[in-house]
Amino acid sequence: MPPTPSAPDLDRLAELAESPQATDRRRMLLIINPYATSMTPHIRTLVLYALQARYDVDAVDTQARGHATELCREAAHEGYDVVVSLGGDGTVNEAANGLAGTSTALTCLPGGATNVYCRMIGLSTDVVESTARILDLAASDPVPVDLARVNDRWFTFSAGAGLDAAVVERVDAHPRLKARFGPWFYAQSATATFLARYVVNPPMVIAEIGGTEVTGVSVFVQNAQPYTFFSRRPVRLAEGTRIDSGDLSGVVLTRANPVDMPGITYRLLAERSSVERHRRVAAFDGLTGLRVRSSDDRPVPIQVDGDFIGTHEEAVFTVRPGGLLVLGGDGTVGREGAG
């Protein structure tokens, strides 16, 4: 969860808002999720005024799921230079779906529980530091990065079909607990979902990977590193793909058994261990596409960037190299960013 700004932090934001005004300014649309974990009206106001020191800013609050995508399509059509997503990874995902393939750049400010994409593009999970950094980047050129896609939905860093999507579905159904307990609620939900749905007769999927079929209970696909974060610790799956490498990587969990879970969990969180080498995991790397389908006619749950998007008979994954322009920390786009 992002740190809650203290009184001195808010004073610093106010100082940024009073900094000298730039004369040649880019047009910016600030999209705010008012229901994001750490959002308050005071932070919204201070961030807006601070950004106006270097940009010509318009601001709008999202009203419903999918609204950020509509706003970003309009922003690209109207010729905005950059869109700032102030919210969590779900808001970033919606923004990316509206900006894919356009000349309008995306950047983000942390307002959610995890803020994976902020870290990936070199921005802090502290809203004051990341605001200051975006001000510093006012004259910098955006960087092209990859976008991945599952069926008709783009994603910025990771997606899953099967167990992890079922966990995200459970988490999304309890937004207050998600906001209050963050990664610990994810962990509790993962345990409860696994025991309830994946120990006895679990839904099975078949992943078609480079001409080979692999059967399992869950497929994890990533467009960048890491797959996600558990608090401040990166969760790593396949190691090859980077945010600008033009390919996909991931793993298939080939069975659900309580005996396997402790070892897999340890490998996910340990700094010097690899989940790829677990005997119940099949890793893949360097792909431009793959297909996942149900093996028993039960629809497969799917998540993108930590948001549940429903159940599907099959999931087709592709990647678009350089499909999104981002404005991030200099020299850190594609690395793990600043926690």
Descriptive account of the structure:
The chain is α+β, with helices and mostly antiparallel strands and 339 residues long. It folds into 2 domains: 7-140, Rossmann fold (3-Layer(aba) Sandwich), CATH 3.40.50; 153-321, Tumour Suppressor Smad4 (Sandwich), CATH 2.60.200.40. It has 10 helices and 18 strands. It has helices at residues 7-17, 41-51, 67-77, 89-99, 116-120, 127-136, 163-172, 175-181, 183-197, 261-269; strands at residues 26-32, 55-61, 82-87, 105-110, 143-150, 153-155, 158-162, 205-209, 212-216, 218-222, 228-230, 233-235, 248-253, 281-287, 289-294, 300-304, 307-312, 314-326. The strands form 4 sheets. It has a 6-stranded antiparallel β-sheet with strand order 6-5-18-15-8-9, covered by helices on one side. Strands 14-13-10-7-16-17 form a 6-stranded antiparallel β-sheet. A 4-stranded parallel β-sheet has the order 2-1-3-4, sandwiched between helices. Helix 1 runs parallel beside helix 2 and helix 7 crosses helix 9 (183-197). The mean pLDDT is 85.
Overall geometry comes to globular
Question: Helices and strands: which structural class?
Answer: alpha+beta
Order of helices and strands: HEHEHEHEHHEEEHHHEEEEEEHEEEEE
Placed side by side, the strands forming the largest sheet appear as 6-5-18-15-8-9
Q: What is the CA–CA distance across the termini?
A: 11 Å
> How much helicity do the residues have?
25-40%
Largest sheet: 6 strands, antiparallel
State the CATH class of the largest domain: Mainly Beta
Number of discrete helical segments:
10
Q: Mind telling me which CATH architecture of the largest domain this is?
A: Sandwich
Count of discrete structural domains: 2
- What percentage of the residues does DSSP assign to strands (E)? 25-35%
| Nearest-integer average pLDDT | 85
Q: What would the CATH topology of the largest domain be? A: Tumour Suppressor Smad4
Low-confidence blocks of residues? none
**Total strand count, please?**
18
Cα gyration radius (Å): 20 Å
